[in-house]
Design brief:
heterodimer; A: about 140 residues; B: 6-stranded antiparallel beta sheet; 6-stranded mixed beta sheet; 18 helices; about 60% helix; elongated
Chain lengths: ~140, ~650
């Protein structure tokens, strides 16, 4: 296992009242049908960070198993924490997790709104377009 | 528990009183009721279901006659004068050595001026053995829920031939419904809904609702109404699809067995094309899932690419500045200080200690402590960023494959259309008519399926939007200082609802796993070519999969006989998991099975249903000599249904002629 992932422990938290929604998103026909909580968390994190919307949790619920994350996901969370709090954050793993959890919490609401406003095909198509758009911008930049 | 007797009076074909007394036997638990097609086997099954529930319908035992009649025997109706009445009744006695439960259902019909039977009275009684003898139970609804709830009846009373459709159509929904029904979690769902209603009521009645809160409340109520409507539309739609599929299956059977070679050939060709089309559909579905996977995996990285690049840049800068990796590892310095000895073995003096401490602080401050981590991060992120560009190529590959499959699908559709045109142009009117009907039904099924998809999508949206509004409502409620005391109460309801949901999910999951286990066990005891199959899986999305010896999923390529074995195994598994001690009635259990498979069923069926009385309603082609030989030792009684062609009425006789 990668060094940083080992330090992250076993689980990440979500807002307790979102637990049912997380499960619903993995039901047949939903966009995360063949995925796990870690994938939903990462999508929510990306949306939450891009919308600058960290949101504190009222009641934490540790259901996002670290096993579901790839090593790069852990480093994406760290990159966000470093951007907000500087390089010294690496010595405070709990804080990196907190920051990621809060952005994912804020982003989850955005994700739900998107999902509930179109069918799963539409939502994915929309995200696909956004990825292609991001890629275009990355290409222009570098 | 077993059937001690079933008495049918004036129900459909059964004019007058017809009674079967079932013999008691621990080992001979099979009862054979033999009857030719149309003699009234299915109506015997219907009469038992009617006695239990006052209705006959079930997806697995619809009447084989397209024209549905009333339940009063037609000959009886003809023989009475206008204004006179006739009674239909069925009595089922259940028990072991003596009656434990008696179910009696009666309906009185009056003949109207146009000669129709109008139901004017109905009566249902349940008697149960108690300390003082048989007691009439006051609440038949509760009593029936304890004897055999309506939701699970289909796993006890069913038509073997119709079972095939269970796994032919989209299986997920059917299996999920079956597992949920067997789980008997209706009460939990009801309690959860009630608690939700009470919680909302508490929030609603809190003093001075803000205008925003009132408006959200209105929206939530509207969502609830929409959910109810959509759920009912979905059930209706599913029933229509199921009914139409049954009709299509019976037309297909007619064409496949027709004496005209062209009809048989076209039907066989159509079945092969439909199979190919299903395989293509599965391939397209897999590709769409792959596409979704690609999007979901790449999205976070591409949306956060700037942040990731920024960290890579900062790590590179630290490296350039020589801050990482450090000349001396902080861990090494820490160890020296702890040991108090140098690597040469000399003691570290006070002055050296101060120097080492200074060096340690310097190295740590300069990120040296986490140098290995930073290098890991740089490598992970830089590699990931490099892979982003593959997204477009991978996506294009998937789109191309989807397109290729769509082209194949189009070709199959054209071939199917050609078959339809040929069959509709056949000189034999019956075939042309049936094909025309099939075409209409097929069109209606496709339309209904797409409607069903739209309903399900809407339901998902409305439920999602309702959840969001409910959370917003709760947030508003909690923000208001005056609601502080009520908050505890609301929190309690909320916690209870979550707990109920967890219990609900755990039960369903447990039932799903048990069903999977028993289905596999029964399937392997019944199937003839065991070595061709490896395992059966019912996943958490309730999709049943059967894997062959090469680990490939092969549900779609099972023969109809194999599919029926799978369905029988699934039914037996659900019956076992449900835990209800009621006999089983199977109509036409071997309709699609012949040869070796039939012998295997005869040999193995009694084994896995050994503690259950099984009534098999069979035709003489099903109950042939070979089957009889194999099952003889387990058959406790044989009965025949004799049809009087003049009156159209049937009677039940002991033994087989």
């Amino acid at each position: 296992m990668a060094l940083l992932k080992e330090k992250f422990g076993r689980n990440l938290n979500i807002e307790k009242e979102y637990q049912a929604e997380y499960n619903k998103l993995k039901e047949k026909g939903s966009i995360f049908e063949e995925f796990d909580n870690a994938d939903i968390f990462m999508m929510a994190l990306a949306l939450g960070y891009n919308a600058s919307r960290p949101r504190k949790m009222k009641k934490k619920y540790p259901v996002v198993n670290l096993k579901g994350f790839e090593d790069r996901d852990i480093w994406i969370m760290t990159a966000i924490a470093v951007k907000d709090h500087g390089l010294s954050i690496l010595s405070e793993i709990t804080e990196i997790k907190n920051i990621a959890e809060q952005y994912a919490n804020g982003g989850f609401e955005i994700l739900l709104k998107r999902i509930n406003s179109g069918d799963s095909g539409d939502v994915l198509k929309h995200i696909e377009e956004e990825i292609l758009d991001s890629l275009k911008k990355i290409k222009e930049k570098f | 528990m077993r059937f001690i007797s079933v008495e049918v009076s004036n129900f459909r074909q059964y004019e007058g009183h017809q009674k079967i007394d079932f013999p008691e036997s621990d080992t001979k638990n099979f009862v054979i009721v033999l009857g030719s097609n149309g003699s009234g086997k299915t109506n015997f099954l219907s009469s038992v279901v009617w006695c239990f529930y006052g209705e006959e319908g079930s997806p697995f035992m619809q009447s084989k006659n397209e024209k549905r009649q009333g339940i009063l025997n037609e000959h009886m109706l003809e023989s009475i004068s206008v204004g006179k009445t006739a009674i239909v009744s069925v009595e089922v006695v259940l028990g072991e050595k003596m009656p434990e439960i008696i179910l009696k259902r009666q309906a009185t019909f009056k003949k109207d001026d146009e000669g129709h039977a109008i139901q004017i009275q109905k009566n249902f009684e349940i008697f149960k053995r108690g300390p003082g003898g048989m007691n009439n139970l006051p609440n038949t609804l509760i009593a029936m829920n304890n004897i055999l709830p309506k939701e699970v009846k289909d796993f006890f009373f069913f038509d073997g031939e119709k079972l095939d459709n269970f796994f032919k159509q989209g299986t997920g929904q059917n299996i999920q419904t079956a597992v949920i029904n067997v789980s008997q979690i209706g009460l939990l769902e009801l309690t959860g809904n009630r608690l939700e209603a009470v919680m909302r009521e508490v929030m609603r009645t809190s003093k001075d609702l803000s205008p925003e809160s009132t408006s959200i409340e209105g929206e939530i109520s509207a969502f609830e109404e929409s959910i109810k409507t959509l759920e009912s539309d979905i059930t209706k739609s599913q029933k229509e699809v199921s009914g139409a599929n049954d009709k299509v299956a019976s037309i297909d059977k007619f064409l496949k067995e027709h004496s005209l070679p062209l009809a048989r050939e076209m039907q066989r060709r159509r079945e092969s094309l439909i199979l190919q089309s299903k395989e293509i559909d599965s391939a397209i579905l897999r590709l769409h899932k792959k596409e979704a996977g690609l999007i979901i995996k790449y999205a976070p990285l591409s949306f956060l690419c700037d942040v990731c690049n920024s960290l890579v840049y900062r790590i590179d800068k630290l490296t350039e500045e020589g801050k990482i990796p450090p000349d001396i590892k902080p861990d090494f310095l820490k160890k020296l200080l702890k040991k108090g000895k140098c690597i040469c073995g000399n003691e570290i003096g006070k002055h050296e200690k101060e120097l080492i401490n200074k060096l340690y602080d310097n190295v740590s401050m300069n990120y040296g402590e986490n140098a290995d981590l930073w290098q890991e991060g740089r490598s992970e992120l830089a590699n990931s960023i490099r892979t982003i560009n593959r997204f477009k190529e991978d996506l294009e590959d998937i789109h191309k494959s989807i397109n290729d499959n769509n082209m194949k699908e189009k070709k199959i559709s054209e071939d199917l259309e050609e078959i339809e045109i040929k069959l509709r142009g056949v000189d034999i009117e019956e075939i042309a008519k049936k094909e025309e009907e099939r075409s209409m039904l097929w069109g209606a099924i496709q339309k209904q399926m797409s409607q069903l998809g739209a309903y399900e999508q809407s339901l998902q949206h409305v439920r999602g939007r309702k959840s969001i509004r409910e959370r917003e409502q709760k947030d508003l409620f909690e923000k208001q200082e005056k609601n502080k005391s009520l908050k505890k109460e609301v929190d309690f309801y909320d916690e209870s609802i979550q707990l109920l949901k967890e219990v609900h999910d755990n039960i369903v999951e447990d039932v799903r796993m048990q069903t999977e286990k028993f289905t596999e066990e029964y399937f392997f005891s019944l199937i003839w070519n065991k070595s061709n199959f490896k395992k059966i899986k019912i996943d958490d999305k309730y999709t049943i999969s059967i894997f062959n010896q090469y680990d490939a999923e092969c549900l779609n390529t099972l023969s109809s006989g194999q599919r029926q074995i799978l369905a029988l195994s699934f039914m037996a598994a659900l019956k076992k998991v449900s835990g209800f001690n009621i006999p089983v009635i199977i109509d036409t259990p071997l309709g699609r099975i012949s040869g070796q498979p039939r012998e295997n069923i005869a040999k193995n069926l009694p084994e896995y249903l050994k503690n259950t009385q099984v009534v098999m309603l069979v035709t003489d082609t099903e109950y042939d000599d070979e089957f009889k030989d194999k099952i003889r030792s387990r058959v406790g009684a044989e009965f025949s249904i004799m049809l009087d062609k003049d009156t159209g009425s049937s009677r039940i006789e002991n033994g087989i002629a």
